[in-house]
Amino acid sequence: MGSVSDLDGPQRSLAAAMDQRGDWPERSAWIRDGVDALPRHLFAPRRVWRWDGHAYVPVDHGHDPAGWADEVYAGPDAATVTQVTNGLPTSSLSCQAVVVDMLDSLLLEPGHRVLELGTGNGWDAALLDRRAGPGLTVSVEADPDLAETARRALAAAGVMVDVQVGDGNQGWAPKAPYDRVIATYAVERIPWAWVEQVKPGGRIVTPWGRLGHVALTVADDGRSATGWVQGLAQFMPDRRTLHAEPGFTQVRAGSEPDGEQPFVRDLAPLRDDVHLRFALRVALPDLRIALAEDADGLNAWIHDARQSWAVLSAVGGGRTIALQGGPRRLADELEAAWNTWLEQGAPDLYDFGMTVTDSGTAQYMWVNDSQSGPRWPVT
């Protein structure tokens, strides 16, 4: 992968950028020590991928070592795409800031037995092993080729992790129970197998939906798990959900607009306020929202990936009009959910939590209080 001196500068620059932003958690000093000892480039394949504005193009270490290093150490919030299938990224070396944040949320201690779901390139597994201790980490990867690549990288780094090929949503029962479970891919619903395979009082950390990651504690009776949203995390989804869903243009073609109406709310928070976007994700999980600005102002294109759509069009003078079609009126639903969020005091994403119970059949998000706060089903 190049000599240590070739990558020492980019590695230090990324660590310094995280220092400047306060990304290194004080309560988990072990993470920075681990990242220093097991830097991400040790687990990056010799070919990574760069988005050129139109498609993912390969960047090979042998032909362009500087460009390769730029992709691996692009910044705290930049993931390194390491696998592309049919033009879509299917594996990545996760952005360092989110890896650190999720490991901090895991509250991992020496001696804990830990299950990782989604081995990828093996970097997270190596960091887990360094903290928990040799032989205490099991990692499950769905892609046999990725699993083998991770095994080789881990062995080269002197790390002893049990890498298994399987469906991460099933956990890994042969080595259960675990003290900690962490997933490196986003799920819409928490697989019940994860709860079953964690000891009472154990912790599950996973990206959820498209914006946040949650940390759940398994109840003493093992029949439920609940916990708070911990931060932002945009990870790749479960591979089984990687399919081409209809885009706005396809959905829009299915129906004509049902008149037009003014949309009086400023659209800027849809672009700028991550807490609003998270609340809308909770309340309207199937909505897809794209934004773009032109000379007249900010515009939004909304659809549900099925039959309903809406366009919020800036027409100048600070005015916006709504066009919508299909069986649902998505502009009205958006405004109603936005109003509800404001009426609740505009809670931020850290005020939200999740509960999983009834063998996983009942899952819901809540705000402020898991028992008495407003709740929304997870579908």
Task: Provide the fold topology.
Elements: H1 4-21, H2 29-37, E1 47-51, E2 56-60, H3 65-72, E3 80-85, E4 88-93, H4 96-106, E5 114-117, H5 123-132, E6 137-141, H6 144-156, E7 162-165, E8 178-183, H7 192-196, E9 198-208, E10 212-218, E11 224-232, H8 248-252, E12 260-262, H9 268-272, H10 274-283, E13 288-294, E14 297-303, E15 309-316, E16 319-325, H11 330-343, E17 352-357, E18 362-367, E19 375-377
Parallel strand pairs: 5-6, 5-8, 6-7, 8-9
Antiparallel strand pairs: 1-2, 3-4, 9-10, 10-11, 11-17, 12-16, 13-14, 14-15, 15-16, 17-18, 18-19
Helix pairs in contact: 10-11
Descriptive terms for the model:
379 residues, ten-stranded mixed sheet, 19 strands, globular
